[in-house]
Specification:
Layout: H1 22-35, H2 39-53, E1 59-63, H3 69-77, E2 84-89, H4 92-103, E3 111-115, E4 126-132, H5 140-153, E5 154-165, H6 171-187, H7 192-202, H8 211-221, E6 225-232, E7 235-241
Parallel strand pairs: 1-2, 1-4, 2-3, 4-5
Antiparallel strand pairs: 5-7, 6-7
Length: 242
Protein backbone atom coordinates (compact mmCIF):
# COMPACT_ATOMS: atom_id res chain seq x y z
CA UNK A 1 0.00 0.00 0.00
CA UNK A 2 1.53 3.31 -1.06
CA UNK A 3 1.59 6.33 1.23
CA UNK A 4 -0.70 9.24 0.40
CA UNK A 5 0.92 12.07 -1.55
CA UNK A 6 0.51 15.18 0.61
CA UNK A 7 3.92 16.77 -0.10
CA UNK A 8 2.33 20.02 -1.28
CA UNK A 9 -0.77 19.97 0.94
CA UNK A 10 0.58 22.73 3.20
CA UNK A 11 1.96 26.11 2.06
CA UNK A 12 5.70 26.12 1.32
CA UNK A 13 7.53 29.38 2.09
CA UNK A 14 9.70 28.68 -0.98
CA UNK A 15 8.78 25.92 -3.42
CA UNK A 16 11.96 24.10 -4.39
CA UNK A 17 12.57 22.38 -7.71
CA UNK A 18 11.11 18.88 -7.81
CA UNK A 19 13.57 16.05 -7.09
CA UNK A 20 13.08 12.29 -6.84
CA UNK A 21 14.28 12.07 -3.26
CA UNK A 22 13.21 9.87 -0.34
CA UNK A 23 10.14 12.04 0.34
CA UNK A 24 8.88 11.58 -3.23
CA UNK A 25 9.79 7.88 -3.31
CA UNK A 26 7.58 7.26 -0.26
CA UNK A 27 4.48 8.59 -2.06
CA UNK A 28 5.42 8.04 -5.71
CA UNK A 29 2.91 5.27 -6.46
CA UNK A 30 0.04 7.39 -5.18
CA UNK A 31 1.38 10.53 -6.89
CA UNK A 32 1.65 8.94 -10.34
CA UNK A 33 -1.76 7.25 -10.20
CA UNK A 34 -3.43 10.55 -9.29
CA UNK A 35 -1.41 12.66 -11.75
CA UNK A 36 -1.10 10.63 -14.97
CA UNK A 37 -4.37 9.58 -16.64
CA UNK A 38 -4.23 6.00 -17.85
CA UNK A 39 -0.95 5.19 -16.12
CA UNK A 40 -1.97 1.61 -15.34
CA UNK A 41 -3.06 1.07 -18.95
CA UNK A 42 0.36 2.26 -20.11
CA UNK A 43 2.18 -0.04 -17.68
CA UNK A 44 0.16 -3.14 -18.58
CA UNK A 45 0.55 -2.43 -22.31
CA UNK A 46 4.31 -2.09 -21.91
CA UNK A 47 4.18 -5.65 -20.56
CA UNK A 48 2.22 -6.84 -23.61
CA UNK A 49 4.55 -5.06 -26.04
CA UNK A 50 7.59 -6.55 -24.32
CA UNK A 51 6.07 -10.01 -24.68
CA UNK A 52 5.59 -9.40 -28.41
CA UNK A 53 8.94 -7.78 -29.22
CA UNK A 54 11.42 -9.34 -26.77
CA UNK A 55 13.98 -11.56 -28.53
CA UNK A 56 16.03 -14.51 -27.32
CA UNK A 57 19.59 -13.62 -26.24
CA UNK A 58 18.80 -9.92 -25.91
CA UNK A 59 18.61 -7.20 -23.27
CA UNK A 60 15.55 -5.17 -22.25
CA UNK A 61 16.22 -1.69 -20.87
CA UNK A 62 13.94 0.30 -18.55
CA UNK A 63 15.56 3.75 -18.51
CA UNK A 64 14.23 5.89 -15.67
CA UNK A 65 12.66 2.87 -14.02
CA UNK A 66 11.56 4.68 -10.80
CA UNK A 67 9.91 2.04 -8.57
CA UNK A 68 10.04 -0.60 -11.29
CA UNK A 69 6.39 -0.75 -12.44
CA UNK A 70 7.33 -1.20 -16.12
CA UNK A 71 10.13 -3.60 -15.20
CA UNK A 72 7.69 -5.77 -13.24
CA UNK A 73 5.14 -5.73 -16.08
CA UNK A 74 7.79 -6.84 -18.57
CA UNK A 75 9.32 -9.42 -16.25
CA UNK A 76 5.92 -11.06 -15.81
CA UNK A 77 5.30 -11.14 -19.56
CA UNK A 78 8.48 -12.18 -21.36
CA UNK A 79 9.13 -15.89 -21.94
CA UNK A 80 12.30 -15.67 -24.03
CA UNK A 81 15.50 -17.64 -23.60
CA UNK A 82 18.53 -15.82 -22.19
CA UNK A 83 16.72 -12.48 -22.02
CA UNK A 84 17.67 -10.08 -19.23
CA UNK A 85 16.33 -6.74 -18.00
CA UNK A 86 18.52 -3.77 -17.09
CA UNK A 87 16.61 -1.16 -15.06
CA UNK A 88 18.23 2.23 -14.61
CA UNK A 89 17.46 5.29 -12.50
CA UNK A 90 19.64 8.22 -11.43
CA UNK A 91 17.94 8.47 -8.01
CA UNK A 92 19.56 6.24 -5.39
CA UNK A 93 16.36 6.38 -3.32
CA UNK A 94 14.35 5.11 -6.31
CA UNK A 95 16.85 2.32 -7.05
CA UNK A 96 16.79 1.06 -3.47
CA UNK A 97 13.00 1.02 -3.36
CA UNK A 98 12.82 -0.56 -6.82
CA UNK A 99 15.02 -3.43 -5.65
CA UNK A 100 12.74 -3.95 -2.65
CA UNK A 101 9.66 -4.03 -4.90
CA UNK A 102 11.24 -6.50 -7.33
CA UNK A 103 12.30 -8.79 -4.50
CA UNK A 104 8.64 -9.24 -3.54
CA UNK A 105 8.03 -11.16 -6.78
CA UNK A 106 9.87 -14.28 -7.87
CA UNK A 107 11.04 -14.44 -11.48
CA UNK A 108 13.38 -16.47 -13.65
CA UNK A 109 14.21 -13.39 -15.71
CA UNK A 110 17.62 -11.98 -14.77
CA UNK A 111 17.13 -8.38 -13.67
CA UNK A 112 19.80 -5.81 -12.87
CA UNK A 113 18.94 -2.48 -11.23
CA UNK A 114 21.61 0.23 -11.41
CA UNK A 115 21.89 3.84 -10.27
CA UNK A 116 23.11 5.69 -13.34
CA UNK A 117 22.28 8.51 -15.72
CA UNK A 118 20.38 7.11 -18.72
CA UNK A 119 22.76 8.98 -21.04
CA UNK A 120 25.72 7.06 -19.62
CA UNK A 121 24.25 3.57 -20.04
CA UNK A 122 25.55 1.40 -22.88
CA UNK A 123 22.65 0.10 -24.99
CA UNK A 124 23.69 -3.24 -26.49
CA UNK A 125 21.80 -6.16 -28.08
CA UNK A 126 18.52 -4.52 -27.10
CA UNK A 127 15.14 -5.85 -28.22
CA UNK A 128 13.00 -3.56 -26.01
CA UNK A 129 13.86 -0.13 -24.59
CA UNK A 130 11.41 1.75 -22.35
CA UNK A 131 11.49 5.47 -21.57
CA UNK A 132 8.35 5.82 -19.45
CA UNK A 133 8.02 9.54 -18.61
CA UNK A 134 11.81 9.85 -18.49
CA UNK A 135 12.89 11.84 -21.55
CA UNK A 136 10.97 14.94 -20.35
CA UNK A 137 13.37 15.19 -17.37
CA UNK A 138 16.51 15.04 -19.54
CA UNK A 139 17.93 18.38 -20.77
CA UNK A 140 16.35 19.08 -24.19
CA UNK A 141 19.71 19.45 -25.90
CA UNK A 142 20.65 15.89 -24.88
CA UNK A 143 17.45 14.11 -25.91
CA UNK A 144 18.39 13.44 -29.54
CA UNK A 145 21.68 11.94 -28.37
CA UNK A 146 19.82 9.43 -26.21
CA UNK A 147 17.32 8.47 -28.95
CA UNK A 148 20.20 8.04 -31.40
CA UNK A 149 22.03 5.80 -28.93
CA UNK A 150 18.93 3.69 -28.36
CA UNK A 151 18.40 3.24 -32.10
CA UNK A 152 22.03 2.19 -32.56
CA UNK A 153 21.75 -0.34 -29.71
CA UNK A 154 18.46 -1.88 -30.84
CA UNK A 155 18.49 -5.11 -32.81
CA UNK A 156 16.44 -5.27 -36.04
CA UNK A 157 12.80 -5.73 -35.04
CA UNK A 158 13.45 -4.14 -31.65
CA UNK A 159 11.08 -1.57 -30.14
CA UNK A 160 11.42 1.73 -28.27
CA UNK A 161 8.42 2.55 -26.07
CA UNK A 162 8.34 6.25 -25.17
CA UNK A 163 5.74 7.76 -22.83
CA UNK A 164 5.68 11.54 -22.33
CA UNK A 165 3.60 14.52 -21.35
CA UNK A 166 3.41 16.61 -24.52
CA UNK A 167 2.61 20.22 -25.35
CA UNK A 168 0.70 21.73 -28.26
CA UNK A 169 1.50 24.75 -30.42
CA UNK A 170 -2.19 25.72 -30.66
CA UNK A 171 -2.99 27.73 -27.52
CA UNK A 172 -6.68 26.77 -27.41
CA UNK A 173 -5.85 23.06 -27.59
CA UNK A 174 -3.09 23.43 -25.00
CA UNK A 175 -5.31 25.35 -22.59
CA UNK A 176 -8.23 22.95 -22.99
CA UNK A 177 -6.10 19.86 -22.37
CA UNK A 178 -4.35 21.54 -19.44
CA UNK A 179 -7.74 22.23 -17.85
CA UNK A 180 -8.89 18.65 -18.43
CA UNK A 181 -5.73 17.41 -16.73
CA UNK A 182 -6.28 19.78 -13.79
CA UNK A 183 -9.84 18.47 -13.46
CA UNK A 184 -8.42 14.93 -13.42
CA UNK A 185 -6.14 15.89 -10.52
CA UNK A 186 -8.97 17.64 -8.67
CA UNK A 187 -11.15 14.57 -9.11
CA UNK A 188 -8.38 12.52 -7.51
CA UNK A 189 -8.30 14.69 -4.41
CA UNK A 190 -5.60 17.27 -5.09
CA UNK A 191 -6.36 20.76 -3.77
CA UNK A 192 -5.73 23.98 -5.69
CA UNK A 193 -2.79 24.67 -3.34
CA UNK A 194 -1.24 21.26 -4.08
CA UNK A 195 -1.73 21.68 -7.83
CA UNK A 196 -0.21 25.17 -7.80
CA UNK A 197 2.83 24.30 -5.67
CA UNK A 198 3.54 21.08 -7.62
CA UNK A 199 3.42 23.05 -10.89
CA UNK A 200 5.93 25.56 -9.50
CA UNK A 201 8.21 22.76 -8.31
CA UNK A 202 8.25 20.92 -11.60
CA UNK A 203 8.23 23.70 -14.22
CA UNK A 204 12.03 24.10 -14.27
CA UNK A 205 12.65 20.34 -14.14
CA UNK A 206 10.22 18.89 -16.68
CA UNK A 207 10.26 20.47 -20.13
CA UNK A 208 7.80 18.97 -22.58
CA UNK A 209 8.04 18.61 -26.36
CA UNK A 210 5.42 18.53 -29.09
CA UNK A 211 4.52 15.22 -30.72
CA UNK A 212 6.12 16.51 -33.92
CA UNK A 213 9.43 17.07 -32.11
CA UNK A 214 9.41 13.46 -30.87
CA UNK A 215 8.65 12.18 -34.36
CA UNK A 216 11.48 14.29 -35.83
CA UNK A 217 13.92 12.73 -33.35
CA UNK A 218 12.75 9.25 -34.32
CA UNK A 219 13.31 10.02 -38.00
CA UNK A 220 16.70 11.61 -37.44
CA UNK A 221 17.81 8.57 -35.42
CA UNK A 222 16.84 6.24 -38.28
CA UNK A 223 13.38 4.96 -37.30
CA UNK A 224 10.92 4.70 -40.19
CA UNK A 225 8.15 2.84 -38.36
CA UNK A 226 6.64 4.76 -35.44
CA UNK A 227 3.30 5.93 -34.06
CA UNK A 228 1.33 6.93 -31.00
CA UNK A 229 -0.50 4.01 -29.46
CA UNK A 230 -2.06 5.91 -26.54
CA UNK A 231 -3.15 9.43 -25.66
CA UNK A 232 -5.27 10.88 -22.88
CA UNK A 233 -5.32 14.68 -22.60
CA UNK A 234 -1.68 15.81 -22.82
CA UNK A 235 -0.18 12.41 -21.98
CA UNK A 236 0.89 10.01 -24.70
CA UNK A 237 2.83 6.85 -25.34
CA UNK A 238 4.55 6.04 -28.61
CA UNK A 239 6.28 3.08 -30.20
CA UNK A 240 9.17 3.13 -32.67
CA UNK A 241 10.24 -0.15 -34.28
CA UNK A 242 13.66 -0.68 -35.87
Amino acid sequence: MSNLDNIYANPHHKVKDFVFDETVVDVFSDMIQRSVPGYQTIISTIGHLAQEFAQDNSTIYDLGCSLGAATLAMRRSIKNTNCKIVSVDNSQAMVERCLTQLNHFKSDVETQVICEDALQVEIEKASVVVLNFTLQFIPPEQRAELINKIYAGLQPGGILILSEKIRFDANQIQNTLDELHLDFKRAHGYSELEISQKRTAIENVMRTDTLETHYQRFEQAGFTNFSQWYQCFNFTSMMAIK
